[in-house]
Amino acid sequence: MAVIVAFYRPLPASRSKRMTQIFTHRDINKAAQQIKNGEVVAFPTETVYGLGANALDKDAVQKIFRAKGRPSDNPLILHIARKNDIFKWTCPNADLKKKVRLLIREFWPGPLTLILPKIGEIPQTVSAGLETVGVRMPANRLAQKLIKAAGVPLAAPSANLSGKPSSTRFEHVWDDFNGKIAGIVKSSPSKIGLESTVVDLTVSPPAILRPGSILPEDLQKFLPDLTLLNKVGEIAKSPGMKYKHYAPEALVYLFENENETKWNDILLNCKKEHKKARIFSPDHQKNFGKLMYELLRKADKDGVDVILIKPFNRSGIGQTLWNRLKKSAFEIIS
Ligand code: TXA
Ligand code: MG
Fold it and tell me: What pTM, to 2 d.p., does this model score?
């Protein structure tokens, strides 16, 4: 019997107590039953942990927004377990359909989210009132098993409190949601550690709304006219982009270039004010990407006040790291 039931800190009498169940790989059917019951269950994916609910049940989806403290105008991604299910929930025209087929053949299951015109059955709560919806088929086997066992697509944002760093380990999800959701599927740390690349296929030319580990150059082989984020600027086309994100409690100083004077000023100030400083150098970018959220969260656990991030190469996966760190930054120093 592998279901562990955990009780969390007592809540004030005015708030009801909840139990968050921990499910292992043996309990996927039990986790799926919670989804069928309209509850929220966190689950692992290869990118980051997700906070899932039945995407066709608007009350269940509402619970995700409440648990995360997420603004209601920020849409959720549909997670499916079979490639062709994308055509159940979206209605691309013939031309778009061809592109989708090529992309999912190459990149699914995996860290690519495709934005397409949605069909009516997807509640407005999921798409935040938009006529489009983002769909992705995660590569993680437990995620696939959960979706199949639930028998419905899962609406799932990253499993973190809104504005905070994403969760790449079970413990991160536990810290944020213990007592707030029905359960968590416990697994190993996320393989990639960075959220999926989001591509909007409803605009012409198609555009990357959020960079990820699948890079523009990988996608351009299939979408030659793809617009890169840095070319369209930072226009908040993806509703989620306009909010502060990924930010730890510690103040993050992100150095775009070497600036010895400013670097030393910050460190000197920390010393004067007895503040704890920590330095990140994202040299080995793939590895840094995998550990970035863990490092940000750990800094908070260790009572770090100030994080200084050394300049790094912003091409390739560096573009994705820069995109995330920029949003987590208190100040960007050029
Ligand atoms: O890797 C991932 O994508 C993870 C895992 C759990 O799958 N999920 C994730 O979800 O990062 P979330 O909600 O944290 O980020 C989804 C992003 C947001 O920036 C949201 O605004 C954007 O995708 N998005 C979702 N649906 C959209 C739509 N219809 N149009 C434009 N942007 C959309
Ligand atoms: Mg997120």
Answer: 0.92
